[in-house]
Amino acid sequence: MLLALSFIAASPLSAATLAERAAPCLGCHGEKGTSEMENTPSLGAQQPAYALIQLFMFREKLRIFDPMNEMAKDFTDDDLRIFSDYLATLPKPAPLADAGDPTRMASARTLTQQFRCDSCHNADFSGRDNIPRIANQREDYLAKTLREYKDNSRHGYDATMADVMQPITEAQIVELAYFLARVR
Amino acid sequence: MKIDAPARQALLAGAFLSAFTLAAAAQQPAPAAPAPAPAAAPALPPGSPLIGRPDGAAAAKLAPVAPPPIAAAADKLPVAKLKLPPGFNIEVYAAGMANARSLREGDKGTVFVGSRLVDKVYAVVNKDGKRQVKVLASGLYRPNGLAFKDGTLYIAELSKISKIEKVEDVLDNPPKPTVIYDDLPKDEAHGWKFIGIGPDNKLYVPVGQPGNSVLHDDAHGQIRRMNLDGSGAEVVVRGMRNTVGFDWNPENKQMYFTDNGRDWVSETVPEDELNRVSKDGENFGAPYCLQGNILDPEFGWGKSCADYTAPIGLLGAHTAALGMRFYTGKMFPAAYKNAIFIARHGSWNKSQKLGGDVVVAKLNRDGTVKSIEPFITGFLNDNTYSGRPVDVLPMKDGSLLVSDDWNGAVYRVTYGKPKVAEGK
Q1: In what order do the strands lie in the sheet with B400-404?
Q2: CA torsion sign, B131 to B134 to B137 to B143?
Q3: How far is CA A91 from its chain centroid?
Q4: How many CB atoms lie within 10 A of CB B48?
Q5: CA–CA dist B156, B182 (Å, integer)
Q6: What is the helix, strand, coil percentage profile of chain A, to 5?
């Protein structure tokens, strides 16, 4: 079994074997780009440069989450690139059916302007390059990630998110996650 | 084509760069007003890292630029694009070191390379005319800073300093570094460190401002000096925002340091600084006075720039002037003797990027700046980086190494006819 896996890892990847290799990923992260698993991010249409950095960080144990560290530990540089490019081809995550309370949505949108989320993540929160898509990410994962950047338990690739999260309160994190999960 | 010297300099730099003197720096530029907060949004608290930062789509080009995580292959490095003054050559010294940053040379010719975005310190080993890259230490947290003295390598992580003794004798089986000092804040913002050992045989450790522009406590915004075992720490420089490079003038033994100016005042000011320390406890003005002559729009009220030491040179707005070293080697022409090479990592939050090069500051006899000229350019083309210099290191043989964290590589600059191989 191990031999077979390493053989697949070393061979040029056809679309079929790539889909096979990606199947375990999508088991948790959602087959159509939208995750249905608690605290597990949707990866559809994620920015490939961002996904590459995260996969690299999992492989190098710069970002710690045991299942992902285990998954990525034997990846070659090319594997990292292939998977990050592949994720970008999946459909972008679907917004929640619940469009959200209009008052909360409006005041949270003001927060995203105040905190300049849109100046890096784009006005539609689709991200670009090394800056992730956060539109319609899972609400629980968004709130968890913002908290982890704020207390620095999740180490960013650089210090940007740790820095910009400093003035943002817990109550504001809840509102930001509510808004971004539902933004249309 | 014939062009005059200043025009050539401007062409080389990809933008203007000229000599600055105290007199030039003393001219007060037009005051820069902070960008008004958007009408819809409530005011940001004082010291927020977001003050002055524009919002909306137009600001997207001002977002941070992150380097690719995977080091470039040696044959993909942008050496062919690089330009130097006549007579100088540049070649790849070592590649494949993700996020290569600070450089130090050991007594036996090993080159040590720190990193910031990965967890590694690398050793480039020179043996029998061949160079080999080894991982000397891993599992470190933002191990940007390195210093070397009497066989011992000192490593600065985000919030601790450690050492490996007789490091060049244990390259094949290095022990874990031993911590000598960890009384340091843990802030991410400006937490990574450059370190150095002065002619007084003391270790110098900076603690940056914990954010873009903040009124901070007594443990930040300073350079500390301590014994090589981590004892006796004291503050020698205050009002420092974030230095990522310093060295000592071989003539007068004074410490010179680069300091990065704050963001979000404007695209054109403040400029990064080259500073000179002439007495213990000197204050360089941050966060109250910027570049020696601009009172900070938030924190400068009631303050006077006259109360702080002004920079001796200005290095361009947002250029991220990082590693700097005095050149004491014999390979380069006499005009470079005791000049300072400075790596400018390059701007991010500026519409037309500036920096991404190595400049050389030549000094007057009294240690002030005579001129600042481009030395290596060509990493920045069409407003896009193909490499970003972080540190410079004059080697014992007189050549100059330059690290590039974008590509995870180190280049070597020589003067004179290129040699195929070193004849020793």
Answers
A1: B88-94, B409-415, B400-404, B389-394
A2: positive
A3: 14
A4: 22
A5: 10
A6: 55, 0, 40
Q: Which two tokens stand for residue B14?
A: 């990809």
Give the C-alpha separation, B176 to B414, whole Å.
Answer: 35
Distance CA B325, CA B258 (A): 10
Report which residue type is found at A169.
Answer: T
CB atoms within 10 A of CB B91: 12
Q: Return the amino acid letter for B52.
A: G
Task: Say if CB B360 and CB B370 are below 8 A apart.
Answer: no
At the topology level, CATH places domain B83-415 in Neuraminidase (2.120.10)
How large is the average pLDDT for residues B217-224? 97
ipTM of the predicted assembly exceeds 0.90: no
Q: Which residues are paired to B411 by β-bridges?
A: B92, B402
pLDDT tens, B225-250?
Answer: 999 999 999 999 999 999 999 999 99
Chain B: closest CA distance from residue A26 (Å): 24
The pair of three-digit structure tokens given for residue B166, joined into one six-digit string: 């007789």
Of B56, B117, B189, the CB nearest to A163: B189
Q: What DSSP string runs through B402-416?
A: EEETTTTEEEEEEES
Q: Rounded to whole angstroms, how far apart are CA atoms A41 and A148?
A: 14
Q: Chain B partners of A111 at a C-beta cutoff of 8 Å?
A: 41
- The secondary element (H helix, E strand) that includes residue B23 is helix B22-26
Q: What is the pLDDT of residues B44-57, one digit of tens each?
A: 776 677 777 777 66
Given a cut of 80, whether residue B260 has pLDDT beyond it is yes
CA distance A134 to A117: 10
Q: Tell me which of A114, A117, A122, A128 to substitute to probe the interface with B (most B C-beta atoms closer than 10 Å).
A: A114
Chain centroid to CA B300? 26
- Contact between B370 and B19 under an 8 Å Cβ cutoff? The reply is yes
